[in-house]
Design brief:
Ribosomal Protein S5, domain 2, single chain, alpha+beta, nine-stranded mixed sheet, Heat Shock Protein 90
Length: about 625
């Protein structure tokens, strides 16, 4: 074949500048595309060999990636099926660029939002190489034998013009040589290519070599002065990928140590071992494999996102899987691989894809089934892991109704004494003691057992049980449970006096009349911060504290949700910290205030009661705390 010059049959003008502009933000994926093509060509040859169609020697099928900084080229070379001249004309000149032309035509007529979705209908494939190149060469030789199977060289500079000619090439397979343009010289740096290969090609099924690396091997028969074998430096091929990742294995063939080792391979900088794993393996009604890990996560859960890696036939797609897996599972770590998830698509396209929705539902069900299995088979181990996994379970129950239906059977409450109950068990545990006079079941809880100790003790003295709800999502979770639990209410143990939180009968009579209450109120108001504290009276028993501080349950929940971004969306703004200063009308110390003739001594006693209440609530700090200590010492003297 003599040298041929020609034009690719496209009608759209300036097709390559438009492709470059549109794909600029993702231009690094050209390398993934070229290597994916090389892997496909290699896999096809292996299939032909196993079917008996190709009878030659397969030999070394490693894909090579090479950088030549001097000549400004980046080469991807495989020993796959290769192409004939006719196949180059068909697949490169016609199909690839006609697809590109159709892409550009649609792109030009769409809004920005529609443009972002169009990409899902077109493979970037070979022509993505022009995003970083001023010229692209292909050198290829088919695996086929016969007269029309000579090697071919094809060249294009990003215009519709191309050159094609026969060349001498003894080995089958394809080389794609990119002449990197000046705007993309970063792709001629070894560290950059190594980074991209590790990101996109870490688990491809064909070995990929990028240069050589140094290793140390023992020198036979030689030892150092300490008696250890001597070693020498050797250069070995730098194979960047694991061709048989653990998720491809059958779950029955993998050990716990295999799963832990693979976790370290995925996250080499992680110092914590995962709590447990879920191996996904389904081939109907879609193909899906993968391994999901439950990491140890507590307060810093936001830092743990973007840890699930999405693959399609072992080709990396993304590690931002919101909309592909349920939101609450984005807190998990691991790998999902499905050929039914298209490679080159926008997230909006994925979110509307029916196969992706089915995959999402399947993953939710598998996670719920795994948690249920652990709970049933080893409840003690489940309880030991509860503090680490509750954030996943609560998040799932809040956001996914189907998950809630399964999880309500194994989700746990933990009380301040460290005992665990299922929802049904806890209801039975408290229903005889914690119903108010209107027959509503009251779930008492604390979110800080130390700070709310005195309130917890007051509840225990009356035979009540107190839950510990100190998780980052518990404010939201409590609201959700109140919608699910009939005739029930959650109340933080310090949000009112205990007798008001579970009101059994009408209020006891007060030892103070209205005039005396007004006098006591004036005493407190001249000694407290009225911007933050409001004086209230309650008729408690003589043995209850003279003064306590409570915070309205509704306002406090809004404050808690504001802290994690909840109330701002409701237009609440920055809520101030407001408290009720509850004066016990029946405590003898309050009566003592009324008979104390010295106003200075009245104020000193009021300040002491006020500061004691604040101290128990963790609200007394700095200068005021120092003054309280001095005053206490003076009173003792």
């Amino acid at each position: 074949m003599t040298t041929q010059k020609g034009q690719i049959d496209i009608k759209t003008e300036n097709i390559f500048p438009i492709i470059k502009k549109f794909l600029y933000s993702d231009h690094e994926i050209f390398l993934r595309e070229l290597i994916s093509n090389a892997v496909d060509a290699t896999q096809k040859l292996k299939m032909l060999a196993s079917a008996g169609t190709f009878k030659g020697e397969l030999g070394d099928l490693t894909i090579h990636v090479e950088v030549d900084k001097k000549n400004k080229t980046l080469t991807v070379r495989d020993r796959g099926i290769g192409m004939t001249a006719g196949e180059v004309k068909k697949y490169i000149n016609q199909i690839a660029f006609s697809s590109a032309e159709e892409f550009v035509k649609k792109f030009k007529t769409k809004t920005e939002a529609e443009q972002n979705a169009i990409i899902g209908h077109f493979g970037l494939g070979f022509y993505s190489s022009f995003m970083v190149s001023e010229k692209v060469e292909i050198k290829t030789k088919t695996y086929k034998k016969g007269g029309a199977t000579k090697a071919v060289r094809w060249e294009c500079d990003g215009s519709p013009d191309f050159i094609m000619e026969e060349i001498d090439k003894t080995d089958r397979g394809t080389e794609v040589i990119l002449h990197i343009d000046n705007d993309n010289k970063g792709f001629l740096e070894d560290y950059k290519i190594n980074e991209l290969l590790s990101k996109y090609c870490k688990f491809l099924p064909v070995p990929i070599q990028f240069g050589m690396k140094t290793e140390f091997e023992p020198v036979e028969g030689e030892k150092d002065k300490d008696g250890n074998p001597k070693t020498k430096e050797v250069q070995v091929p730098n194979i960047i990928n694991n061709t048989n990742p653990l998720w491809k294995a059958k779950p029955s063939e993998a050990t716990d140590e295999d799963y832990k080792k693979f976790y370290r391979e995925l996250y080499p900088l992680s110092f914590e071992e995962p709590l447990f794993h879920i191996h996904l393996n389904v081939d109907y009604p879609f193909n899906l494999t993968g391994i999901l890990y439950f990491p140890k996560v507590k307060k810093d859960y936001e830092l743990q996102r973007n840890k699930i890696q999405l693959y399609s036939n072992q080709v990396f797609v993304t590690d931002s899987v919101e909309g592909i897996v349920p939101e609450f599972l984005t807190l998990l770590h691991g790998v999902i691989d499905s050929p039914d998830i298209p490679l080159n698509v926008s997230r909006s396209y994925l979110q509307s894809d029916q196969r992706v929705k089915k995959i999402s539902s399947y993953i939710t069900r598998k996670v719920a089934d795994k948690l249920s299995e652990i709970f049933k088979n080893d409840r003690k181990a489940f309880e030991e892991k509860w503090d680490d996994i509750k954030i996943f379970i609560e998040y799932g129950m809040i956001s996914e109704e189907k998950f809630y239906e399964k999880a309500e059977k194994f989700a746990l409450f933990k009380n301040v004494d460290g005992k665990y109950f299922t929802f049904e068990e806890y209801k039975k545990h408290i229903e005889k003691t914690q119903k108010d006079k209107e027959k509503k079941l009251i779930y008492l809880y604390a979110n800080n057992a130390d700070e709310q100790f005195s309130y917890i003790e007051a509840a225990k003295e009356r035979g009540y049980d107190v839950l510990l709800m100190d998780g980052v999502l518990d404010s939201h979770f409590i609201n959700h449970l109140e919608q699910k639990f009939a005739d029930s209410h959650f109340a933080r143990v310090d949000s009112d006096s205990i007798d008001k939180l579970i009101k059994k009968e009408d209020e006891a009579p007060s030892k103070l009349d209205d005039k005396q209450k007004e006098l006591v109120k004036n005493m407190f108001e001249r000694n407290i911060n009225k911007d933050r504290f409001k004086v209230e009276f309650e008729n408690l028993s003589e043995t209850d504290l003279p003064v306590t501080i409570t915070q309205n349950e509704f306002m406090r929940r809004m404050k808690d949700m504001e802290a994690i971004g909840g109330s701002g969306m409701m237009g609440m703004g920055n809520l101030p910290d407001m408290y009720d200063l509850v004066v016990n009308t029946n405590n003898p110390l309050i009566g003592k205030l009324l008979i104390e003739p010295d106003e200075k001594k009245q104020d000193e006693l009021v300040k002491q009661l006020y500061d004691l209440a604040r101290l128990s609530k963790g609200l007394l700090k700095g200068k005021e705390l120092s003054e309280f200590v001095k005053r206490s010492v003076s009173i003792i003297k």
